[in-house]
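Project channel, design review

CF: Before we commit to the Micromonospora profundi constructs, I'd like one complete example in the thread so the newer folks can see what an input/output pair looks like. Taking Amino acid adenylation domain-containing protein.
RD: sounds good, go ahead.
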Amino acid sequence: MSEAGTVTLTDAGAIAPFGYELVRTRALTHPESPALVVADKSSDPVSYAEMVDRVDGLAARLRAGGVTSDQPVAVLLDRSTDSVIAMLAVMAAGGAYCPLDATAPAARLAAVVGALGAGVAVAERADAHRLPPGLTIVPPSGPAVDPLPAVSPHLDALAYIMHTSGSTGRPKGVAMTHGGLARLLRWQVGDGRPGLRTLQFTATSFDVTFQEVLSTLATGGCLVVASEEIRRDPAALLDAIVEHRIQRLFLPYVALQLMAVTAQRRQVVPDSLEHVVTAGERLIITPAIRALFAAIPQCRLDNHYGPTEAHLVTSLTLPADAAAWPVVPSIGAAVDEVVCRVLDEKLADVADGDIGELYVGGSGLARGYHGDSALTAERFVADPFALAPGSRLYRTGDLVRARADGDFDFVGRTDTQLKVRGFRVEPAEVENALLSHPRVDAAAVGLREVADGVPVLVAYLQTDGEVTQREITDHVRGQLPPYMVPTRCVPVERLPRTASGKVDTLALAALDLPDPTGPRPAEAPSLTELITSIWARVLGHDEFDADDDFFDVGGDSLLATWVVTELEQELGRTVELSVFLDYSTVEDLAGALGSEATVPEQRPRSSQIVTLRAGPSGRSLYLVHPLGGELLGYRELARASRAPLRLLGIGWQGEPPAFGSSLAEIARVHVEQLRTIERDGPYRLAGWSFGGVLAYEMAQQLTAAGGDVEFLALLDANPLIDPITGLPMDRTPFLDMLDSVLARLDDPASTEADIEELTSGQTWTQLMGAPVRGASSGGYLRTALQTARSCMNAAMRYEPAPYAGPVHLFQATGSDDERQARLAEAMRGLCPGSLTVIPISGDHWGFIRGEHVAEAARELDSALQRVGRVGSMTNGS
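CF: and here is what came back for Amino acid adenylation domain-containing protein:
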């Protein structure tokens, strides 16, 4: 790490305009302090020295790739330490950071990249196919290049471009300068301090990310990066705050409300919190939020307001006594170096207490809209009150009321712009997507509150003939990011109009949302009926079958939370979100929760094939279960993979295999089920740990039956051959441990706490592939343990025969090097055809959880690509 000049944080006139210079300076004084941590991973923290070295290395590769000042650099990365390092590296290289929404469809990504005119993108090679052709792809990790002279951008140079929804139907890029970013940091660095632990919760495509990242790293704090699972699951968020002792948190209102409800229901107090900032949506002090902050009186709550075009504009710190908070607080007063003017249609001042449009000026304004000078001129106007020439004001479109104490009350919008989960949504963009459906004649979009006071996007549709909500959402989902897909569709005979011919939004808002559930029966419904009823209420339609996936019929992670909340209320017990996400059809969810209709007391043993990630039909990779028969552990790997095929899991459901079953017998059950889906292949199989051994035997059986196995991957899978003796390894101690655990479960004196201890410990992790909060019941755990006991006994007696086909052996480099080398050598004797050994950073568990999952997924994708039948996985550059 090279030296950098001293930067004074407290002197506004001396502070560097370049945010990364502040970070590098802090790194010089605290090189070994933790800078970055991944919240749900077991990996070690990234120190300031390591972070700066990685940033400088990527910046050098970007500059070698042609990045210069003001040049947009697209960034498409999953949430990780790499995504933070990429942000800093783009700015260090002099480019403009342009994050892409990883959840957006390819058409949306192409539109954004096209509007940027970017020539370079930071992305994993496996993700290149999601980007338009012609881009130079720079992976976040790569070989070192000679460093180029340091870059110190001018105040008016571009720092980043953030895209928001556009009223023309196209996303618009807000171009922020280093001067605007420096203004934000000058105001905010006083809230940071060395060691302060801040959660990086915000989506990288949302400008609050800069507050989280730069204000933390510029002051020596530790940034804890939240995974997508933590972001979408309030219970997981609460757990992460408690586990990592988070002290500062930035949350949009919806996430804050759901976390508060979860904390109240679970009686968990996140007492490490010192400072919570909410922004992006109107703050409402609900009883749950009031109760949360009453329980942590040392925690300060700030309400921030600011459009992307000006970042942070106003701030309100609520008083210490939560009981005294108003239900709807103000948005506060203008922060330093910001000018707020409340004006009428003629740009004249309005009197205090009157309502007007908020115009914002000062040093924090964006340059304008990238590549759209007409829209820039329309929204950024000359300040008629300023003495300095060239002063501008941004027309926010927000209606406010100025108070005598200097604060502002938010009243509404001058236009139709909406806020959904903190994101700005232009109804016209959604309406354009709806109108592209051939049956939709007219469409309007609005917000409605349907549960817990949380607003959702509703589409009102005038159609030519009957069209289902599922057809509509499937159509729109291919064009827009998930937060812009309407949650409910309301058919109307004709859109109501005002006297001037405009859509009457008040009349639409007065329409009753149809109750798709109908009247509830007087008698207690079955579990299947209960789940169906809850789904219909939450989704707003009943156009689904018992075997339809929740996320394919209009559901998302927020709605899944509501489903779980209602189930908990109806059943009177805890229902984990992780269970719902693993069993995402009515039929499977009823089975997981114990429906007598779908889960008889004695279920036959069987193979279960489930979709882990959707993809092209007929092009599948099958991931075979580890010891306990469950597929939970593959969720992260499936999410990280970018291979253009469908990922299916082969699990064990129902009664455990009989103790004494051979591994060949267990594999035969799966092979029979697999061949009902694909008769002859080509088959692609992979398995982690015991799952790899089982996949190996399945490949043997499929080949013997005349099937075509084109790909077999053993993910740190040990076929239980001792590399020294060549004999099966003795795992009797592991079996003895399972027997002792089962005995505890059968002991009448065992408590729920004992079961909770088992499900959260290493035993459960070894069996399931991932820790589980509360595995529902002792019966659920017992079944998994019995399955593991039978599988381990079968594996101990397994004598693998040589396999003639190609095999890919993925090995964890964090394990015993000598043992791994001997194991690879032993495997070569079993694989006379072809054995490719692929090293993966980390330990045995890194294949399914931790920051090395992404590496494992990339290498798996690359190996699949090399077999030649998966299709192109590059972007054509």
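RD: helpful, thanks. The longest strand covers residues 440-451.
CF: The two ends are 33 Å apart (CA to CA).
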